[in-house]
């Protein structure tokens, strides 16, 4: 099994590589520290499975999943992240991920997840499956405001909350500045917010960043 690893922390990459290389039937085909390099590596090496972190520079993990699957629709993808909020879990699955594990569980679950998704099955630990079920039961309710956002709106909200300009966001997602501003206006309206400071506060309160 040839694996692509994408994570912006070298320590995490080192740890993942050691776990994979302990398995005789697995090898790390390529590593990348940001979304752009991960996409380039995938196009060049054609991995069997990809392990993707959600929070990365340039393009985030959700966007990377979309782009990878546009080239390789059958590529099994496992999301590995520090985020344990059900919003991220749901969005990752919505984007096309077949597995989702947290970094604190990687040493116990990574190999199992890789084997399962390569066989065409999904891998979600019990706590992730429960969180996904809870999210779906509350989706669209007033208590789940982030759930009212589209995937692109969530991505724009996150980047705005991190201090990115409209121009920077537009370049990251290959869209126009006008489109970014349209997403921003929709975000403000849907969430009842007034400005970027409110967006930043909202993102922190809902564990989006």
Structure, described:
The protein has about 210 residues and is α/β, with parallel strands linked by helices. The protein has two domains: about 1-140, Rossmann fold (3-Layer(aba) Sandwich), CATH 3.40.50.2300; about 145-205, Orthogonal Bundle (Arc Repressor Mutant, subunit A). About 55% of the residues lie in helices and about 10% in strands. It contains ten helices and five strands. It has helices at about 10-20, 35-45, 60-70, 85-95, 105-120, 125-140, 150-160, 165-175, 175-190, 195-205, and strands spanning about 1-5, 25-30, 50, 75-80, 100. It has a five-stranded parallel β-sheet, sandwiched between helices. Helix 4 links the parallel strand 4 and strand 5. The longest helix is centred in the last third of the chain and has 15 residues, at about 175-190. It is globular, with a radius of gyration of 17 Å. The mean pLDDT is about 85.
